[in-house]
Amino acid sequence: MIYNDWNILPEANSSLANQLQLSKAKATILFHRGITSRNEADAFINPSSSNLHDPYLFQGMDKCISRLQFAIKNKEKIGIFGDFDTDGLTGTAVLARGLANLGASVHPYIPHRTLEGHGISDESIDFFKENEVSLLITVDCGVTSFNEINTAKKLGIETIVTDHHVPDDTLPDAVSIINPSLPTSEYPFDHLTGVGTAFKVIQALYEKYKSNIPDHLYALVALGTISDVGLMKDENRFLSNKGMNVINHQPIPSIDSLIKISGFSKSTLSTENLSYGIIPRINVAGRLDHAKLSLQLLLSDSLEETDKIASKLEVLNKQRQIMTERAILEAKSQLLKEKGSSTPNIIFAGKQQWMPGILGLIAGRLSEEYNRPVIAASGEGDYIRASARSIPEFNMIGALRTCSNIFEKYGGHHMAAGFTIKSKNLKTFRQQMTSVADELLENLERKVVLDIDTEIDLNWINRESLSFLSSLEPYGNGNPAPVFLTKGISVLDSRSVGKDKTHLKLTVQQGSSIIEAMAFRQGSRLKEARGEIDIVYSPGINHWKGNDSVQLTIEDFKKNA
Ligand SMILES: [Mn+2]
Fold first, then answer.
1. Phi, psi torsion values for 337, nearest 5 degrees
2. Sign of the CA dihedral 355, 254, 305, 117?
3. Cβ–Cβ < 8 Å for 505, 491
4. Which domains does the chain have, with CATH numbers?
5. Residue 418 main-chain phi, psi, to 5 deg
6. Distance between CA atoms of 128 and 137, rounded to whole angstroms?
């Protein structure tokens, strides 16, 4: 990200700092996370199960639970239909493990990303029929599977939908629909992810059976919630915090195998490690091959088996990295050819051969870099597939809806969506989207501002302050890692590192503090990184391969004025 400006956010007032019995810097960080009293600070730092809302606040929950109880009691076969990303996979595993633990007979199914796509597939209905399933429960999808739910019903399969995606105008004919995004929903927290929504069913069911929810289910909820960038407040904060504790302190073969192969260490795993190390390895099976491999991992308790699957995922992940980097270079040179002097309000990138599974990664990286909504497409023949990633100012699913009549299939959220379209409709689509984007974004101020929590000296960073910062985890959407400004530090050493010298590695000094720092994707700024500079960064502990060291992650830097 290239920033046009730095903005130091307002300080907490002294009375808040006094009330919290914290230094001004620490109180300011909490203040920026919405905390204005001692009680709120305590609740934030120690999230507890009292953060969990009553699952029966979902209108459909009564019906859902009595139907599930009936199915368990009568030994019905229960099909679970999930999704191929980490949210859908962990959600499927939460339902499969949670239901099986109560004696249910479960038949989980994950669709193939490109052959079947998102939402209940015809292939899955065949599978459920063959397995004599009479009750189907969806996770992270289903609310728009109107026709498929009707087909299943005709074949004697009833459906419960759990989903968090925005519904169409007509709801499917399901036994019950659990979805915080229903326009009629009265559930107090509408930012649950797919796995979080599925978890509410498990919570309600376990209350009925007067059983304790197994801890490993929380680990799965944390993984899915962090991967779907769920708002890290309210229930999501408790669920993720509890899940992170479970991941760090209890053996979970599937996750432990991934931690090992990523080079991280258990007990010190951060949300960042999950986002950049563990989650991509779970997602990669669906992107390059079939996500059922990752489901198999999440459902296994044998370390021998999970190690084996993790090695396969590792190979796929290396391939995925190479393919994505190449595609991004191709997309950038395309854009350079097309755009001329100014970047368009919406970016289209496409190549026949790009693997559909990496389109979202391409769109995401371009959107971050150019600060524009981006649509990345691929495919040959009659049909084109695309993934879209957006910026807060542009509601992607809303914009796509204006073209809904020309899609074969589409769906998603404000910030991310996907669709399939006939190639012959592509031109109309591009024109329509361009005019929507031009209208909405033409007069948008294009300054990218880096928000800073507070200015500190480098010696502020010590064991005690780092432990305060780690009590703010899990970081995420709505609770970003705190960002600091330190002025006038000396660069003792600077190098560009990594493949293609992508990153910048610095050793910086102020007074008696000498600290290592990384500026990711800023390798090309090596020449600027000398002498006295001002840096904006987040401090953390790097636990790489068993060695602990303090490391700054530099967001931006400039010459000290
Ligand atoms: Mn999801």
1. -65, -40
2. negative
3. no
4. 5-15+449-559 (2.40.50.460), 52-212 (3.90.1640.30), 343-441 (3.10.310.30)
5. -155, 160
6. 11
Distance 196 CA to ligand 1 centre (A): 9
Cα separation of 520 and 543, whole Å?
Answer: 17
How remote is the CA of residue 223 from the centroid of ligand 1, in Å? 11
CA 112 to centroid of ligand 1, rounded, Å = 16
What pLDDT digit, counting tens, does each position of 488-536 carry? Answer: 999 999 999 988 899 999 999 999 999 999 999 999 999 999 999 999 9
The answer to whether the beta carbons of residues 434 and 441 sit under 8 Å apart is no
Query: H or E segment at 384?
Result: strand 383-389
Dihedral over Cα of 259, 261, 262, 263: its sign: positive
Distance 3 CA to ligand 1 centre (A): 30
CA of 228 to the centre of ligand 1 (A): 6
Question: How many A from CA of 541 to the centre of ligand 1?
Answer: 30
Segment 204-219, tens digit of pLDDT: 999 999 999 999 999 9
* Structural tokens at position 443: 């007069």
For position 442, what pLDDT does the model report?
84
* Closest C-alpha to 476, from 226, 279, 223, 221: 226
CA of 181 to the centre of ligand 1 (A): 12
Maximum CA extent, the chain: 75
- Separation CA 354–CA 412 (nearest Å): 21
268 — pLDDT class (breaks 50, 70, 90): confident
Distance 88 CA to ligand 1 centre (A): 6
Report the mean per-residue pLDDT for the chain. Answer: 94
Which token pair is 75? Answer: 């030994």
489/26 Cα distance (integer angstroms): 22
CB 380 within 8 A of CB 344: no
Going from the Cα of 4 to the center of ligand 1, the distance in angstroms, rounded, reads 33
In the predicted model, is pLDDT for residue 546 greater than 70?
Answer: no
Q: Whats the size of the chain, residue-wise?
A: 561
pLDDT digits (tens, 9 = 90+) for 425-448: 999 999 999 999 999 898 777 778
CA of 143 relative to ligand 1 center, distance in Å: 12
Q: Which residues lie near ion ligand 1 (Cβ < 5 Å)?
A: 87, 140, 194, 228
How many Cβ atoms sit within 10 Å of the Cβ of residue 214?
15
E strands, 12-168, where? 77-81, 105-109, 133-138, 158-162
CA 344, CA 349: separation in Å to the nearest integer?
12
How many CB atoms lie under 10 A from the CB of residue 10?
A: 9
- List, for residues 433-486, the tens digit of each pLDDT value: 999 999 989 877 777 899 999 999 999 999 899 999 989 999 998 899 999 999
